[in-house]
Amino acid sequence: MKQTLKTLIVTALMLGLSACGQKPQVKYVFYLIGDGMGINEVIGTELYNQGTGYGPEEINFAHFPVRGFVTTVSSSSLVTDSAAGGTALSSGVKTYNSAIGVNADTVAVSSVADWARAAGYGVGIATSVGINHATPACFVAHTEKRRNYETIVTQYIETPVDFAAGAGIITEKGTGHDGAYFENLAREAGITVLHGPSFDGVASVEGRVLCLSGKDEVDLPYAIDRKEDDTTLSDFVQAGIDYLDARFGKKGFFFMIEGGKIDYGGHSDDAAACFQELTDFASAIDVVLAFYEKHPDETLIVITADHETGGLMLGAGQYEMHPELLAAQKASASVLTELFREEFFPDDKPYKAPSWEQVKAFFAKHLGLWDSVPVSARSEAGLKDIYEQTFGKGGNRNLETVNLYSVNSKMVSEAVIYLDKAAGYQWSYGSHSGSPVGLYVKGKGQEAFVGIRDNTEIAPTIAALAGYKRD
Ligand SMILES: [Zn+2]
To answer: Least CB-packed of 221, 292, 319, 383 within 10 Å?
Structure first.
């Protein structure tokens, strides 16, 4: 009886303190990063979905109760890369482009995932790209260069992250290692390795777990190119929630989730690929929201981006947009490049340059050009010029547009850029921009994020709300 009274008094005190905002009540933290997801990418996706019907007219997080901006400059450049951006978001520390979890003097800095673990919470990391790619790496590893992929995956194996999920493991050229080599190292370290697309049974794994797609890939395919048996980011997120809730539901957990290929669409100046990827990221957030609905008073969801990619503008000069024109594009520029090569210069047939009419028919079929999408005489002359460079006398049929994550046929790449522009989406450049990105917050403590923030402020704010001690 005495004990019960004491419990009641303690509980009343705790409730009183929490009402004053002193006692943290956030048990479950979801920290989501859309790589390369600028504000125009988010709004552009809604316009695309409204015009084509290919996704929800409203992107769920774009309407979260607290929204703001995040500034993204790094210590070395006004335009950040994913490594410096990721380190700022994970650790609250400004650093130079290419730095993973180290400060501007290359000294290791701890991340919000470390702070959560030290406070006794479960920790999960999931991404649609390689598990050791820059953004997830910033939450678990410390290395001077983002290209040190094998250092990063080795550090991941040594760091007690409870749940990790990614398409595959990126290896370095010349080491002779493949993904399977590191999977084995993970198993030897006692980590249970599961392969997608289904992760049934993940909730009953007792130790650490690593989920991979199981296919020979380091990135999940673009959502626009997805096949039935492909693993999705939502599969990873569901597996992560099932596992973390089973093992750490009582105490709580921290779960970082990256939509990694929104950025790839931007690097390729490929709006349809970018927007379907962003819609897919929102689908993964639906999985998070389903968890939130069960624990609304104890869950915090914070969504932002590391930077914008592509310098995407809404409006291409005529005071109008026609997002519906993108409906004709059913595959990414990368897959269209494969189709283009298969159709016009397959390996198993002697080469014969296609006519301009044949090339036009290809783009009518795959992008709607000259069909649902009007092409002016001037624009046709521009595309025909690339046709001449590709298939004309002295031309190079392998003429390419080289981006960070793709090497596409220049003919395909320029046709996609043309289509995007016709729809009103104009790309500035196939790289990052210095634009601020959006901040979208829902859940316990959301008010703490009101306003314009720097990317170094997010992790410490999460830590304060969840009661993690920043070391
Ligand atoms: Zn990035």
So the answer is: 319
Going from the Cα of 178 to the center of ligand 1, the distance in angstroms, rounded, reads: 24
Question: 254 CA distance to ligand 1 centroid (A)?
Answer: 21
| Distance from C-alpha of 7 to C-alpha of 88, rounded to nearest angstrom | 41
Alpha-carbon gap, residue 66 to 449, rounded angstroms: 7
C-alpha atoms less than 13 angstroms from C-alpha of 35 in its C-beta half-sphere:
28
Inform me whether the pLDDT recorded for 322 exceeds 90.
Answer: yes
Convert 243-252 to b/e letters by CB count within 10 Å (16 or more is b): bbbebbeeeb
Cα(359) to ligand 1 centroid in Å equals 34
Class of residue 154 by CB neighbours under 10 A (exposed 0-12, middle 13-18, buried 19+): middle
pLDDT digits (tens, 9 = 90+) for 93-147: 999 999 999 999 999 999 999 999 999 999 999 999 999 999 999 999 999 999 9
- The strand pairing partners of 380, in sequence order, are none
> How many A from CA of 91 to the centre of ligand 1?
16
Ligand 1 centroid – CA 306 distance (Å): 5
The domains of the chain, with CATH numbers, are 27-312+431-466 (3.40.720.10), 319-426 (no CATH)
Angle at Cα 202 formed by Cα 200 and Cα 206, nearest 5°?
Answer: 150
